[in-house]
C-alpha cells in the first residue's frame, strides 16, 4: 500500500500487488542420529535464492503524484530440528 496526503492535506492511499512465480535454487544439509531406543534426532539447514524482484507503482490522484520504486533479493534461510520415533523393528522380508 502506498499512502500520502493530497493538496488539501487529506490522507489518500492506493493498494497494489506484485505476484509472480519465481525459479531459483536451494542448497542444504542435515544430520540425523539415534538418541536411544527407537528415538532419533535431526537438524537441517537450507539456503534458498530466488533471484531479484523489482517494480514501481504511482499514486496519480495525489498532487504531485507519489511514486514508489522497489528492488529486493528474494532469499531465505531455514533451520529445522526434530525428534522422530520409529515404530516397530527393522523391516525383514520373509518368504
Task: Throw out a few tags for this protein.
95 residues, mainly beta, 5 strands, 0% helix, 64% strand
Structure description:
This protein is mainly β and 95 residues long. It has one domain (2-85). 0% of the residues lie in helices and 64% in strands. The chain has strands at residues 2-5, 11-14, 25-36, 39-59, 66-85. The chain has a three-stranded antiparallel sheet, with no helix packed on it. Strands 1-2 form a two-stranded antiparallel sheet. The chain is rod-shaped and about 85 Å long.
Helical content (DSSP H or I, runs of 4+)? under 10%
- Catalogue the unreliable spans: none
Shape: rod-shaped
Query: Main β-sheet, in a few words?
Result: 3 strands, antiparallel
Order of helices and strands: EEEEE
Q: What is the CA-CA span between the terminal residues?
A: 66 Å
Task: Provide the structure class.
Answer: mainly beta
Number of strands: 5
> What's the overall average pLDDT, rounded?
84
Percent range for β-strand residues: over 45%
Q: How many structurally independent domains? A: 1
- Going across the biggest sheet, name each strand in turn: 3-4-5
The helix tally amounts to 0
Radius of gyration, CA atoms, in whole angstroms:
26 Å
Amino acid at each position: 500500500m502506498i499512502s500520502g496526503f493530497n493538496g488539501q492535506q487529506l490522507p489518500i492511499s492506493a493498494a497494489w500487488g506484485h505476484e509472480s512465480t519465481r525459479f531459483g535454487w536451494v542448497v542444504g544439509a542435515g544430520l540425523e542420529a539415534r538418541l536411544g531406543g527407537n528415538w532419533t534426532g535431526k537438524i537441517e539447514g537450507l539456503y534458498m535464492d530466488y533471484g531479484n524482484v523489482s517494480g514501481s507503482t504511482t499514486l496519480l490522484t495525489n498532487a504531485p503524484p507519489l511514486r514508489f520504486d522497489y528492488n529486493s533479493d528474494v532469499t531465505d534461510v531455514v533451520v529445522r530440528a526434530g525428534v522422530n520415533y520409529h515404530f516397530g523393528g527393522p523391516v525383514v522380508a520373509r518368504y
